[in-house]
Each structure stands twice: as structure tokens, then as C-alpha cells.
Design a protein that fits this description.
The complex is a heterodimer. Chain A contains no helices and nine strands. By secondary structure, chain A is mainly β. Classes of the chains: A mainly beta, B mainly beta.
Chain lengths: 107, 121
Amino acid sequence: SYVLTQPPSVSVAPGQTARVSCGGTNIGSRSVHWYQQKPGQAPVLVVYDDTDRPSGIPERFSGSNSGNTATLTINRVEAGDEADYYCQVWDTSDHYVFGTGTKVTVL
Amino acid sequence: QVTLKESGPVLVKPTETLTLTCTVSGFSLSNARMGVSWIRQPPGKALEWLAHIFSIDEKSYSASLKSRLTISMDTSKSQVVLIMTNMDPGDTATYYCARINGDYSLVFDSWGQGTLVTVSS
């Protein structure tokens, strides 16, 4: 089975840059999507196909993907960005695979 | 505006069968490029994909739960139904339905609010 590994937590001061990694074997060959989930709410898509943003998502959110690691970058972090973030890919065997999730804390 | 809404029981007993309904609006279930998935999240844990369905009668299930799941679609009612048999306390979770956008690498671009299902006697 295909596994996506994320750090359990990332802490960042307001105005700084947060980077959330998502590790998987040769993940660079797959399209990676990122979801933001605030407490008590449903996930929201923030980045799809590695680097694209849905309408309404701030440009502060960006993604990259190469080799064995995909990364979600949040620039100029705000208090409202505090949430859990999940990466996700499609796998021909496991179908939809989610990462283990990362809690981003704004200090 | 695309919306999805889950409905179903909040409490089921062990060994019982769970039936959840996802009612959608803002898009057509007859659109072959758009599907619906069910995804669950146990309290404090990560997301887990369960099943998907597309109008072309394409259905797929999580390998670990395949024997217990059935997904179906009623396009006239704009509903997708998930049936899960032999419920166990370990199935306690928030269950979400989400739209799969086939135009963009099968991404979940819209989600329902979720419904918490507790399995307990």
C-alpha cells in the first residue's frame, strides 16, 4: 500500500512562513492535493495538482512536488491559518490516499 | 453553488447496518466527469477514504472495507447512498461525502459538513 507521511505538527510565528511536508515514494510522479481542516469543520481544498489554487484561496498558499517529497507553503502566516493540513494522492491500488495530517500552530 | 449534505443516524448499535445519504445540489450526478466519495474521520484521527461512485456505474471501495460497503446513486433524487454492514465501535467517526472533480486529477473539491456516527450499545 502507498503511504504518505507528514510531520505531526508545525509551529510558526505570525507573518512567517510555514512549510508542511508530505513524503511518499516517488511522489513527484503523482498529482498532490492539499486540504485544510479547521476544528469542527469539513476539509477545504487549498491546493490541487501540486501547485494550483482553487478560486478564493489566498496566494499565500502554494505547493511544490519533487522526488519523494511534496510541500505546502503558507507565506505570511495568519492566526486564521491554524488548522490541520492533509495531503492526498491517487493510487491505482489504494485509490485515494491521505497523509497522516499536520497540525499547524500559529504562535 | 455546489453543496453536499450528509444525513443518517447519529447512533447505531454494534452489528447493525448503517445507511447514510448524501444529497447534492449545484451539479448533476449524471455528469460522467463528476463523482461522489464517502470519507470518514475517527475522532482525533486522519481522513480515510471509503468508496466512490460515478454515473457511468463506476464504483470502487476501500480494500480493507470492501466486504462491508455498498454505494449507490439515485440521479433523480440527486442522492448517493452508502451502506455499511456489521458496525463496530471502531467505526465511530465523522462521515463526509465529497465531490470528486474528474477534470482535475480526481480531487475532492467540495465537501459536505459531515455527520458524526457513534457505534455503541
